[in-house]
Design a protein that fits this description.
Mean pLDDT: 88
Number of helices: 4
Low-confidence stretches: none
Order of helices and strands: HHHH
Structural class: mainly alpha
Length: 117
């Protein structure tokens, strides 16, 4: 497969930058949902407290996943000026633009991702 064209590289960089903005906004939005759950024992029932704590744990997990993904996006953007930008981390071949358009932070081609599963 041929290397990505300069236009494809710019498109990918723009998509990654937009994804980084989106992930930062999401992390900021869920920040309030991850704070310590403080409920008035007299006003809230046991199930309400359990539900609030469950929602807090889910928000924490979502925030963790978004933070990991944001780190991956930032790491990929750091390689934008290298010839490896947009290439599979295992086989080194360029990842098809169709895949990168769907998920710009992909670091593996479909074949290598399937082989890892």
């Amino acid at each position: 497969m041929d290397a990505h064209t300069p236009d494809h590289r710019r498109e990918l960089a723009c998509a990654l930058e937009a994804l980084a903005v989106e992930l930062n906004a999401f992390i900021d939005r869920v920040a309030d949902a991850t704070t310590v759950v403080e409920l008035d024992q007299g006003q809230q029932g046991r199930l309400s407290r359990m539900d609030a704590m469950s929602q807090q744990k889910m928000a924490e997990a979502q925030r963790r996943r978004a933070t990991v993904r944001l780190t991956r996006v930032q790491n990929i953007l750091e390689t934008r000026d290298t010839e490896d930008f947009g290439c599979c981390g295992d086989c080194g071949e360029p990842i098809p633009m169709k895949r990168l358009r769907a998920r710009p932070d992909s670091v593996l081609c479909v074949e290598c991702a399937q082989a890892r599963e």
